[in-house]
Inverse folding.
DNA sequence: TCCTCTCTCACATTTGAATCGG
DNA sequence: ACCGATTCAAATGTGAGAGAGG
């Protein structure tokens, strides 16, 4: 096994700009606050190493992505989006009781952005109750036509949430993006659970899996399963402590940690204190020390994350159109492949500097002000209720061919050759190197995406809107 | 050929939305 | 309009087995 850090060192780049957060302050237009609900549950999973099943027809996440928002302008309209970002450029395998790096990541599948079905809706709507992305589904089917988020099995991801102040999907591109991530939400995509402790946790907490609980009617099944597990483990030569560990603690396997500790042991030492902090959090934690992430306050029931904003480049392709195109002609495998390994990679080359440096955004700053922008409680409030906005989105889709709509499609490294999802397909494995500012931010407590996209090339590293579902 | 790893599928069970009738 | 019962689609992990790759 190649040590994680060794591998990762291949991706090491310039350190993330420390000034980004400060720079973003200047752009902050509001104090939007996003809080992750069920934080304790997420933490519990995270401590073990969250796994999310991905299937061809699509599988919901558990725990669900449930958030609460505050600081929105009650009568301004917002769009909520979520996408999945690779944690790193590696593929993993489950070896006995721990995750190990199994090589470099596969080319990133077509990146898709899930649009919350209520979008757009007034700030008051988002703030009056928690926002759930219950319907969001993960799939490993790269040809998926249902709008599920496509992931690779045995790869690590974390969700990224975007709050966009926009009256409708047309104005998204002029709008300000506020992006949030939660360290506790990182997970490994799998087609079958690897860590039995995760299975246990899922069964214990997911109501749909009640039938598998010990006290349930499925005792026999589980008994058999347990026996099988024991037999299997008996075959394992070198995990003498595993069973006892697992049985002792209601679940919380330090074994994953152990695995990572071991892995870490082979590597050059880092800041010990950081490592300790991180280990309390996740078996993955020790890998993410570079950003100097600090632990969230103990005892918090929710995790608050402040935002930064991202300016959507006006030139940027408006992805719902691609959704339209996608819908019309499902992306053929060739398209996907080429988007990932072909142009996608070529593009990565050009993007790297954008990732690693903090561009001056003078040009983008005025844009936020110039933008027609969403109305603020003005008379032009749209009359459509939240439910009707799917119609808006569909209308958007239907108008995809109109001049002046698609006409804004200025930048795309893939545009002519790859009219489908590949256009905005996310970065390949190395496009999310450990020093990716996002990743770095992710490791920091603030999870404050101090990123500005002053030009489209920068923006293009974000897979937003490659697909929207509603 | 064998082995390992990953993935797929059918299954039993549960939940929750939709429907229907009182 | 409301409420309770019923129906049915969707969601869940399990476990066997297929298939690819070394």
């Amino acid at each position: 096994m190649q040590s994680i850090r060794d591998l990762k060192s291949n991706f090491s780049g310039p350190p993330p700009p420390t000034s980004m957060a400060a720079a973003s302050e200047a752009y902050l237009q509001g104090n939007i606050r996003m809080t992750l609900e069920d934080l304790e549950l997420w933490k519990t999973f995270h401590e073990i190493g969250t796994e999310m099943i991905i299937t061809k027809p699509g599988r919901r996440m558990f725990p669900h992505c449930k958030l609460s928002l505050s600081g929105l302008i009650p009568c301004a309209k917002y769009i909520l989006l979520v996408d999945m970002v690779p944690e790193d450029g590696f593929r993993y395998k489950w070896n006995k009781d721990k995750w190990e790096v199994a090589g470099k990541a596969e080319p990133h599948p077509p990146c898709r952005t899930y649009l919350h079905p209520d979008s757009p809706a007034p700030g008051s709507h988002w703030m009056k109750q928690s926002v759930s992305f219950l319907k969001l589904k993960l799939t490993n089917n790269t040809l998926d036509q249902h709008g599920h988020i496509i992931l690779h099995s045995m790869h690590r991801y974390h969700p990224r949430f975007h709050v966009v102040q926009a009256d409708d999907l047309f104005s998204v591109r002029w709008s300000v993006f506020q992006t949030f991530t939660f360290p506790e939400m990182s997970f490994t995509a799998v087609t079958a659970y690897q860590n039995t402790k995760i299975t246990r946790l899922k069964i214990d907490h997911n109501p749909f899996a009640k039938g598998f609980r010990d006290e349930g009617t499925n005792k026999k099944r589980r008994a058999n399963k347990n026996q099988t597990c024991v037999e299997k483990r008996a075959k394992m030569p070198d995990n003498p402590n595993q069973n006892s560990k697992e049985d002792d603690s209601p679940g919380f396997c330090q074994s994953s940690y152990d695995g990572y500790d071991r892995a870490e042991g082979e590597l050059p030492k880092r800041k010990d204190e950081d490592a300790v902090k991180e280990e309390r959090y996740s078996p993955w934690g020790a890998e993410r020390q570079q950003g100097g992430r600090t632990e969230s306050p103990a005892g918090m029931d929710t995790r608050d994350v402040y935002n930064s904003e991202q300016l959507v480049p006006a030139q940027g392709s408006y992805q719902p159109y691609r959704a339209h195109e996608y819908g019309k002609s499902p992306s053929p495998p060739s398209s996907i492949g080429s988007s990932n390994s072909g142009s996608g990679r070529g593009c990565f080359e050009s993007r790297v500097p954008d990732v690693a440096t903090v561009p001056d955004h003078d040009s983008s700053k005025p844009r936020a002000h110039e933008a027609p922008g969403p109305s603020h409680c003005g008379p032009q409030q749209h009359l459509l209720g939240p439910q009707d906005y799917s119609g808006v989105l569909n209308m958007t889709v239907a108008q995809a061919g109109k001049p002046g709509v698609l006409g804004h499609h200025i930048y795309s490294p893939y545009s002519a050759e790859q009219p489908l999802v590949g256009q905005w397909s996310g970065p390949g494995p190395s496009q999310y190197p450990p020093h990716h500012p996002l990743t770095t931010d992710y490791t920091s407590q603030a999870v404050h995406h101090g990123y500005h996209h002053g030009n489209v090339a920068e923006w293009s590293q974000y897979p937003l809107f490659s697909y929207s579902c509603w």
Notes: Residues 53, 59-60, 62, 192-193, 199, 202-203, 206-212, 218, 221-222, 224-225, 228 of chain A lie near DNA strand C (CB under 10 Å from a C1'). The CA atoms of residues 51 and 188 of chain A lie 5 Å apart. The longest strand of chain A covers residues 77-95. Residues 33-210 of chain A form a domain with the Immunoglobulin-like fold (CATH 2.60.40.820).
